[in-house]
Amino acid sequence: MRNVDYHLHSYFSADSEENPRNQVLEAIKYGLEEICFTEHHEFHFPGLSFNLDVSAYFDEIQSLQKEFEGKIKIKKGLEIGLDSRFKEEIDLFVNEHDFDFVIGSIHEIDDIEVYEDTNYYKNKSKITAHREYFEHLLECIDTFKCFDSLGHLDYVARYGPYQDKLIDYDKFEGIIHQIIKKLVENGKGIEVNTRLFQFPKAQIFYQYLLTEYAMADGKIVTLGTDNHKADRTLDRIQEAQHLIQSAGFSEISTFSQRILDK
Ligand SMILES: [Zn+2]
Ligand SMILES: [Zn+2]
């Protein structure tokens, strides 16, 4: 299986201060053969401006590609925040730039960030908070065709104020089935995001998602750490590869100019 990381950030994302060159050096040190930067861009994000300077970003990637040629493949990707209020702007932004790969993600709903200590979780039971996130995902997958792989389906499990923040998948089988079905119908991939992989329960959730996705005849599985810092000591890429393989997928998907690599 390919040793890749298709979800990482640098100082081109508003929530990272990492130099992209450090990300490359650390990826080489850990034996990765290919990485794809997936910098944030969001239209109207509460409290922070996730405005990607695409031309500076592309220049930087080009120079890194030149410097590290033969050592590691470096791709220029995007993590676009899906928000139906900005459908036209988002489609235009994604299509007018020459990205290799695009993750579609949800980080806010109606201007409320799905994050620690925000109103998103306020006065909500865990089951309601999780269900609303999935309902919103389903709507967005229906609305947007401009991305290649759906980012961190378990994002809502990261920041809740609950003792056990993780997703009890058996309570959401219906809606998750619909999400997976819609992704496959639309030819979209699913991301295995290793951010919560230190918790066995989070891995079990992905095992469930991958099995559902395989059963629905889905073909595109991407893998990413979502690292905002270069440090890879907590990487769980091998565990994710194992999970992907045991769900019946023989390879991890990679992209060039939005086309699936062979
Ligand atoms: Zn994200
Ligand atoms: Zn990310």
Automatic annotation (TrEMBL):
It comes from Lactococcus allomyrinae. The keyword Ion transport does not apply. Keywords: Amino-acid biosynthesis, Histidine biosynthesis, Hydrolase. Pathway: Amino-acid biosynthesis; L-histidine biosynthesis; L-histidine from 5-phospho-alpha-D-ribose 1-diphosphate: step 8/9. This is Histidinol-phosphatase. Residues 4-84 form the Polymerase/histidinol phosphatase N-terminal domain. GO terms for biological process: L-histidine biosynthetic process. InterPro entries: Histidinol_P_phosphatase_HisJ, PHP_dom, Pol/His_phosphatase_N, Pol/histidinol_Pase-like.
